Amino acid sequence: MNEVKTLGQFIIEKQADFPYAKGELSRLLRDIGIAAKIVNREVNKAGLMDILGQTGSTNIQGEHQQKLDIFANGQFIKALTSGGECCIVASEENEDIIVIDSPVAHNAKYIVAIDPLDGSSNIDVNVAVGSIFSIYRKINTDAPATIVDVCQPGKQQVAAGYVVYGSSTMLVYTTGKGVNGFTLDPSIGEFCLSHPNMRIPADGCIYSVNEGNYVHFPKGVKQYIKYCQVEDSTTNRPYTSRYIGSMVADLHRNLIKGGIFIYPVTAHAPQGKLRLVYECNPMAFIVEQAGGKATDGLNRIMELPVTELHQRSPIFIGSKNMVDMAERFMHDA
Ligand code: AHG
Ligand code: MN
Ligand code: MN
Ligand code: MN
Question: Which reaction does it catalyse (predicted)?
């Protein structure tokens, strides 16, 4: 077993990649790692705590909030507030941005957008869930942070990552210089480097889409799904369908094995379901940095203009050649 490298050691080692940084981003990633460990602890024993089920409240998305949604949200906000490196938190679970104006954060220059718990519908049935984060630099360092600092296109992200609470718990992130994965070692309570320089295969044999919405899919998506199902041994078809309802878990599998994840517009979600700021953009940054592709079926996700915090977008993301093929069906439809 080669030498153990913790997330903290890795971050400090890589800090040399950012000559202008004076450690703030490193401390911010550390703060996120701490929150992830606390959320992991509750996820792992959720059945033994009064933390399963719904809270009875509804979030801005119109979703019934799960107790673990609220717990995770609180932990990330607490870690980001006390860490002092973040001036705004934007969360799926909060209608408006949270401006952090504590003395310790008075010259903080980073904005963090979070999906504190992704795949909430899976919590009570013990299926993998995740957390997603996206980090921007404040646009005008001399002025107080506002919603304008949050509504930046995805290509302005400084860093992005996710935690997947699965058979093991992993934290995967990028700062624009590749993608690295860390596995939580519960015996020492540290995320340890386990997947250095992650690359998504250019081709894959897995397609991930909720085919329950098939009837209302755009024509190009229907045609692409049929293409995935046709027998053709020269292109390894039919592909395998894998979809578990947690974007983080579905994308993590496809990142490692190759595959495409599609959440197109549907009758119920005419703009798409997934949120641009704290789901699509961070996952697009990671997948692009691993050599993959992420579009809305036509346009690069990270170029899409961001006009409001909870804006939604269709998303086609994963192995480059598979996204290219799906886009051809969308274009020709
Ligand atoms: P969240 O739990 O953060 O609201 O996100 C759920 C998302 C995403 O994780 C998943 O891919 C998608 O919802 C599943 O949607 P459907 O159940 O409509 O397929
Ligand atoms: Mn939700
Ligand atoms: Mn989500
Ligand atoms: Mn969520």
Answer: beta-D-fructose 1,6-bisphosphate + H2O = beta-D-fructose 6-phosphate + phosphate
